[in-house]
Amino acid sequence: MTSRKREREALALADQLHSAAIHLLRHLRKEDDASGLSAPRLSALSVVVFGGPVTLGQLANAEQVKPPTMTRIVTGLEKDGLVRREGDARDGRLTKIHATPKGQKVLMAGRARRVELLASAVEGLSPTEVAELGRGAQLLRELIDSMRRAQ
Amino acid sequence: MTSRKREREALALADQLHSAAIHLLRHLRKEDDASGLSAPRLSALSVVVFGGPVTLGQLANAEQVKPPTMTRIVTGLEKDGLVRREGDARDGRLTKIHATPKGQKVLMAGRARRVELLASAVEGLSPTEVAELGRGAQLLRELIDSMRRAQ
DNA sequence: GTCTTATCGTTAGCACAGCTAACGATTTCG
DNA sequence: CGAAATCGTTAGCTGTGCTAACGATAAGAC
User: Fold this and answer.
1) How far is the CA of B19 from the C1' of C1 (A)?
2) Closest chain A CA to residue B132
3) Contact A29, B63 (CB under 8 A)
4) Tell me, what's the pLDDT at A104?
5) Each residue of A68-105: pLDDT tens digit?
6) What are the residue ranges of helices labelled H in A35-82?
7) Where are the alpha helices (DSSP H) in chain A?
8) What is the pLDDT of residue A147?
């Protein structure tokens, strides 16, 4: 008869994660604004930089967003010279998104800026707590993946 | 000379948390849409329901948002009959926000709906992992608090 | 080898969230 | 009483999310 208890824990956990995600993004967004990149653009750029050239559809899917939304995000990134569009030779319908050197540089700078904020906060934590937090982040990622597969 | 290593870990951790927060919110938003409440509205409503009557300014501060933004969020909630505005007797400049019974009901229903999604994902985790994830959420909250204090 | 259907990306148009600047109303303080 | 500060709102901008509709290209039917 632990299902009731687990359900209660899941409820509390869902609340905490939801709230934490909202507030974390609000704080990080301030730093990200310094690079002129919003969270969605930064996230999409990250996929392009680390995931190599991808089609717009793949990018939309990776970011869990509809194609029209991704079109505009990419347009914004392209206007800033961070990515460029390129047609696929084999399939004329596809648009491949490539990261420019500037895009790579800006992404790294944004990462560095963001981590400075978090790093100062992390300094108040013990190595054990850092490890625990890392473990939590890993579990959260797995959880999100399983939610995604369940759709 | 572990500072370099810790800095690298903090960088990776920041990335993971950032990405996880973005994707978690994207998934949960879909469920929240079922209640007709966006994440910011749900979050604000939660503060009003659990935090008793608060002024608009307090609410904006709690949600880390500027007053004009909160004005519109509250207006939306009020239009749906989830909260009501009430002037303060002592200080005419203040606007106290109260939760209506309907607001409380809708919030609870949203929580239940959201947890169903997370609960099914949580079922794939062991009790130990649930505890670890809870610990991570707690640390994350503390981290956010310290970031907030540091400003 | 057409012709139909499916897929991909874009455009158009809507709602909402975030911001700054400016303003009216109210309170507080000199 | 009059000046300054505080609170909330309005106006106007940018960006993100959606659906619906459309052109262009590819794939499949016949």
Assistant:
1) 50
2) A136
3) no
4) 94
5) 999 999 999 999 999 999 988 899 899 999 999 999 99
6) 39-51, 56-62, 67-79
7) 3-34, 39-51, 56-62, 67-79, 101-122, 127-150
8) 77
